[in-house]
Design a protein that fits this description.
The protein is mainly alpha-helical. It has a domain of 199 residues: SecY subunit domain (Preprotein translocase SecY subunit). Helix content is 70%, strand content 6%. Strand 4 and strand 5 form a beta hairpin.
Length: 448
Amino acid sequence: MASAAEQLASNLNWGAIGKATELKNRLWFTIGALVVFRIGAYIPVPGVDPQALAEIFHRNSGGIAGMLDVFSGGSIGRMSILALSIMPYISASIIMQILTTVVPSLEALKKEGEAGRKKINQYTRFGTVVLAAFQAYGIAVGLEGQMASTGPVVHDPGLFFRFVTLVTLVGGTLLLMWIGEQITARGVGNGVSLIIFSGIVAALPGALVQTLELGRTGALSALFIIALGVGVVAVVAVVVFVETAQRRIVVQYPKRQVGNRMYGGEASHLPIKINTSGVIPPIFASSLLLFPATIASFQSPGNEPGWAQFIATYLSHGHPLYLLTYVLLIVFFCFFYTTVVFNPTDTADNLKKNGGFVPGIRPGKNTAEYLEYILNRLTLVGALYLSVVCILPELLIARGGVPFYFGGTSLLIVVSVTLDTVTQIQAHLLAHQYEGLIKKARLRGKGR
């Protein structure tokens, strides 16, 4: 039997959004904040030749720059003030999350509740500034050494250009970090995720038009385009199914007698997602795998060293060695990141402290071993699922000649953020309906 809340959530009418004033304000605020992000993506960094930059970027689009350009909504290709996007903040958050499981002082700070969480967020912001400054300076130095057929990318290289670029790019990242926090507090859903989502979605209309144009000119067959569309829908359906799938472990709580009454005795469940690690493994795997290709692409044509030629030959998109390495890295990061975000021992201890136990399993060590056994099996399934979702686009790009970067990581982010946003909207609608019921009950009580 479903609970009353689940029944009410399943009967929600999306037309009720018009009646929920607070939800409408949150939606409009979210849309407005994302519009500001998209406007900033077209404001260029001073001192950069856009034509020369476009030529250089097109030459190096197969490396890590191409992947980051998808996440930033094209900001890197245009070298806008938001070229670093929100990625330094995400990297700092992941680093802090890993450190809280390794450094005892940070682990103790994490357990202090709201005060500890605010302190960790403050450290994350400081880390964001450091990472953004390091990346911005590297970009400035890298741009000064680039030469296109139309001339140098930077008109007036030097210390002043590096300083302006560093301040501009770091300021853009901090602006996006602030916008993301405002969307989380005053909008709908996770602000950082919505910023990445809007950047990815912004490139889809142009990619669709480019694909249809290739079909019109005969470069791609109509049958292939139809099959591609059906395949995208099928993959999205699989991603939605797996991302919402859970293994529910039954947890029983014993009965307690307080006076003449019996309390407790109810059964609950501990949900464990199949894909516990989310989109982190594909992002890390892609970054590590594309980093050598990015370094090799900056070598002078015709004078590449042996290692650069090896990378260009065997670690290019669609090559068997590239695909095998990609899968192995995804599997590794799936297990690594799952151990960071889910600790079976702590979970078993919390269940034991609250009097809960898994039927047929002794509390404590045996419960932790049982949870670890289930988690390892689910992680293996999740790793294989992520590998398939990420390998299929690579094969389409290399073998099918798909003209746009249809990345598995991008698809996972779009679907995950969409599901999370829909859940947030449903939660607001549910709260609005509950408020209406409470007001009606109060009015009826006063009428009596």
